[in-house]
Amino acid sequence: MSHTAHIPSHRKPRRSASKLAVRAGVAGGVLSTLAMAGTASASPSAEPVAETTLEMPVLNLDLGADVSSAVTVAAENTRLAAVEGELTAQEESARTGAAAEAKQAKEEAQKKADAEKAEKTAKAEADRKAEAERSSRSSGSERTTLKSAAAPQGSGTVSAPATGSAAAIVNFARAQVGKAYVMGGTGPSSFDCSGLVQAAYRQAGISLPRMSQAQSSAGTSVSLSALQPGDILYWGSKGSAYHVAIYVGGGKFVGAQNPSTGIVERNLSYDKPTGAVRVL
Fold first, then answer.
1. Which residue ranges make up each domain of the chain?
2. Distance (Å, rounded) from C-alpha 30 to C-alpha 234?
3. Which residue among 9, 65, 160, 184 is the one 20 to 30 A from 105 at the CA level?
């Protein structure tokens, strides 16, 4: 017996042939796979490994054109807004101006109407007073004719027929006798006192003021004892007379007296005037 026989062997026990074959196959497969991978990586024609890439959406826009268009639109909107604001301001100004003009016109019309009303009222009152005074006088009162005034020869009223411009005035005035008295009337169918005088003088080509107050200041003052046909007679104060008429000669006058009598021819004694003026 060997002296080493009692020492156990250090060699591993042999594996069976079948297990060795399996292990050899596995190792061979691994080596084959590694070889193929190395060949693939070394080959220049090998396709690159695909990488996952996130693609951003492509904006197919012309940003410069869009910005320019937006600026143009904004500028146009601003211009239109400015124009609209200016038109609105002009319309408001026009409305304000029209309202002011309308108000002023209304005020002026009202003033004119008030003045005319006041004038008509004053004239009507004066006519009423004059008529009341005439009515209160009795037939045997203090009325006197111009002839009974005991005026010196040659200084009395003129009884000779009127001629020239005076004749035109007198004839027109007498032709209106019997027509109606209408306040504010200037003919041809009706007159008030100053309207009749104005129309009569127009026949002689003479323009007189419209109102009795102004007519009583026309021409030069004459004495009632030296009247001539065509002279203007007035009642009340000179420059503020409330009634006028036309002296037609023979101690008579023609005048538009009042609505109840109309246009009449009367003796001076019927209603003696305050004074007279001569325009001819």
1. 76-133, 155-278
2. 154
3. 184
Question: What distance in Å separates the CA atoms of residue 67 and residue 52, rounded to the nearest whole number?
Answer: 36
**Fold for domain 155-278?**
endopeptidase fold (from Nostoc punctiforme) (3.90.1720)
Pairwise CA distance, residues 112 & 121, whole Å: 14
Go through the chain and tell me how many residues it has.
280
Query: pTM here?
Result: 0.46
DSSP output for 168-205: HHHHHHHHTTTPEE-TT-BSSSEE-HHHHHHHHHHTTT
What is the Cα–Cα distance from 94 to 239, expressed in whole angstroms?
Answer: 46
Give me the residue label for tokens 């003919």: 187
> Which residues lie below 8 Å from residue 4, measured CB to CB, with a gap of 6+?
none
Per residue in 54-78, pLDDT (tens digit) is 555 555 556 667 767 777 888 888 8
Helix (H/G/I), strand (E/B), else coil: 275: strand
The residue type of 271 is: D
